[in-house]
Amino acid sequence: MSEACIACYVRVSTADQSLDRQLTSTSEYAQNELGADLSEITTYRDKSTGTNTKRDGYRRLMEAVEADEVVAVVCHEISRMARSQQDLLSTVERVTAHDTSIHFVRDGLSFGDEKDSPMSRLQMQMLGAFAEWEARVKQMNTKEGIAARRAANDDYAHGPAPLGFEKDDGILVEGDDYLNVVAVLEAVESGELSKRKAAARLNTSRRSINRALEREGLYKV
Q: Is 101 a catalytic residue?
């Protein structure tokens, strides 16, 4: 890269989730708020959990920042950049140390652009702490969900197993595509994916999607 660019960073948790909303959000911000042309925007992508620090897109982004090839970093929201408060603060410090600004569109926060304030940094710490808490809650929900399914196994003793599950000697267990089903259902609940598209991705019916959404306790991750 011969000239400094504006870098957009986008991330989803699984390969089946769409990056479209984040791509639109970050690109529009770079153009409308930072005055960038499309030719001046470079996008770095990851499809992995926020707790996974070995993200190729993130790594390449930081290499470009530290090589002084980036004038600004744009991310849709803080939770897309990191799920740990320490990781978030470290990222912001690494970026701004190279006279590069970093912008979180949905959170309305910017740093390194001479507009940030002590209150903004306090807000960032609070949001980062909340994101970290949310990740831990999801991990706890996984354990609770497994316990709940075991306790409620009699409810599924007859008939086919629910979406994303299979039966092992009559016992309900998570199938190979369970995590993919959870990710798709979360995308539906957040409005990022329609029920029709969700059904197509999971090769099932909209009726099955509706049933899965009603059985919220089965899909805690």
A: no
Tell me if residue 156 falls in helix, strand or coil.
helix
pLDDT digits (tens, 9 = 90+) for 175-190: 888 888 888 898 888 8
- The total number of residues written for the chain in this structure: 221
* Number of independent structural domains in the chain: 2
| Helical ranges in the chain per DSSP H | 20-32, 56-66, 78-81, 85-96, 118-151, 178-189, 195-201, 206-214
Please pick, among 13, 25, 84, 101, the residue that the annotation labels catalytic: 13
In a domain, 140, yes or no: no
Domain shared by 158 and 93, yes or no: no
Element spanning 62, H or E = helix 56-66
The one-letter amino acid code at 68 reads: D
* pTM for the structure as a whole: 0.56
